[in-house]
Write a structure and sequence with these properties.
The complex is a heterodimer of chains A (129) and B (177).
Chain A: H1 3-6, H2 8-28, E1 42-45, H3 46-53, E2 64-75, E3 78-81, E4 85-89, E5 103-114, E6 119-128
Parallel strand pairs in A: 1-2, 4-6
Antiparallel strand pairs in A: 2-3, 2-5, 3-4, 5-6
Chain B: H1 2-15, E1 18-29, E2 39-50, E3 54-60, H2 69-79, E4 87-94, E5 105-116, E6 119-132, E7 135-144, E8 165-175
Antiparallel strand pairs in B: 1-2, 1-8, 2-3, 3-4, 4-5, 5-6, 6-7, 7-8
Classes of the chains: A alpha/beta (129), B mainly beta (177).
Chain lengths: 129, 177
Amino acid sequence: MSFLKKNKKLLITLSLIAIVGFGTYSYIFQKPQEVSEIKPSFEGSSKEFITQNGTNISEWNSKIIQITGTISTINNEGVVIDENVFCQFSENQNLNTLKENQTITIKGMVIGYDDLLNELKLNQCTLKK
Amino acid sequence: MRLFVILLLITQTLFSQKFYTRTGTTGFKASVDAFEPVQALNKSTTAILTNDGEIASQLFISAFKFRLALMQEHFNESFMESNEFPKAVFRGKIEDFNATSLKGSKEVNIKGKITIKGVSKEIETKGTITKVNDKINLVTNFDLLPSDFNIKIPSVVRRKIARTVTVNLNYELSEKK
C-alpha cells in the first residue's frame, strides 16, 4: 500500500489541525480593516450631515461616512470642508491636485466632534472622484 | 481715555498669537517583555497653544491605532469604554514660555489637568519645545497609572500589560491665521 493510503486518517487529522490553526492565527492577528473597503453608513453633502446631527455625533463614532462639499481650507495636515468638517487623509493620499473652493467627495471615519476648533473630525480619509 | 482702551484692545488681538495642530501625535506603550507589544498611536490630536504657554489639547480614544484589530477592539470596548468616554483632554500651562521670544530649543516644565474616562488628575512633566521656522514643536513623555482613571484591567490579561503606561506626545504647531 502507498504511504498516503496507509496513513490516510493521520494525514486528514493533521490537515484539519493545520487549517484550524491557521484560521485561528489569522483571526487573532488580523489588522484593523481598511476604511476604503468599508461601505459608508452615510452618503451625502457635508451640510446635510451637520444639519442632521449638529454637534451630537456620538452615534456616528467610528462609523464611515462619505460626504461632498467645498474645500474651505487646505494645508499639509488635511482639508477643511465647508468650514466645519476636518478631513485627515491616509498616509499615501496625494493632495497636490486639490485647491480651495474645489468641490470634492471624501470617504472617512468619524472620530468625533472637536469642540476646541468647532469642527467634525474625520480621519483615514480617501478621495472619491 | 476711551481711545486708549480701544487701542489696548486692538493691540491685544493683534498680539495674542495662537499655535495649533489637528494632527498631533500621541502615543502610549504598556508592553511587557516576552508578550505581544501593547502600544498605539493617535495621529489626530488637536492642540492649541497661546503665546504665553496656555495649552489645551483633545484627542478621541477611538482614533488610537493598534497593529492588531482585536487589541484595538478590547481597548475601546473593555478598557476605555470609548462609547461613553470618547475624549481625553488636557488643559495646562507651559511654564516660563513665550512664543515670540523662543529661539531654538528649550527645556520646559508643563503643568496641568488631564481628564481620561471622566476622571481628572493634575500632572506635571518636563518637555522640549523647539521653534522650527515658523512652527513650534512640543515633545514630552509622562507616565500614567490606569488605576488612577478607573481603567480596570481584567486578571486574564493582567500579566501582559505593564502596570505603568508611558505616554509620549509630539505636536507640531503652526500659527493660526
